[in-house]
């Protein structure tokens, strides 16, 4: 039960971080995309530091969750940060939550509960992954980040496509960060904290985290939060769960359980779609 509680807390704190950092970035000029001046400007914003503190807290909670259970348990629950974002954005941006949005929140929550119940994720080992597998996986993930970042940079300034595409690059980066965090926490459990700092995952985590963090700031500075959050919410768990099952060998139930999980996934998708459309409609007013 601890892993579920920690993952839900991570989603809530991560949503607060997204809203605070978007509030700090919302007045930044769009021509600063990928420019170092973007970071210099946001360092002058007190809200940005509050968002950074929330992000650090969410990372600590996520690391604790990953140390307590497999990625395929933790990551689906992190999708709850979209409903949490809806609620918190109401406070910061004065946005009224409609009845259909609350129904979407209920759909996402029920879908996630059914998905985890049906698939019953277990197992996995991040300690015995061959070096060649790491190289292939990290290389493929880096290529995905580059493609989405390039497409986002080419999208028209002021369009919702720009933050949406950039959010896919940032989300992929954070998915890789989650994977490396799992590897790092596994090293801590197996060899202690001092021993973990003698292995490469912690340094890979620092690099991947820095890149993902920069892409997040670029995303928030390129357009409204409502256009970026669905991509951030959906991409990270998908990337991390693929790694969890394919690379770490985490197990989920197959057969009829997998078939019955399809409606649960559809329910989640419908909920996310409703919120995404609602957010996009509000984007023109942000």
UniProtKB/TrEMBL annotation:
InterPro entries: EmrE-like. It comes from the Bacteria. The chain crosses the membrane at residues 6-25, 46-67, 73-93, 105-122, 134-153, 160-180, 200-220, 232-249, 255-276. Keywords: Membrane, Transmembrane, Transmembrane helix. The keyword Nucleotidyltransferase does not apply. Gene3D superfamilies: 1.10.3730.20. PANTHER family: CONSERVED INTEGRAL MEMBRANE ALANINE VALINE AND LEUCINE RICH PROTEIN-RELATED. This is Integral membrane protein.
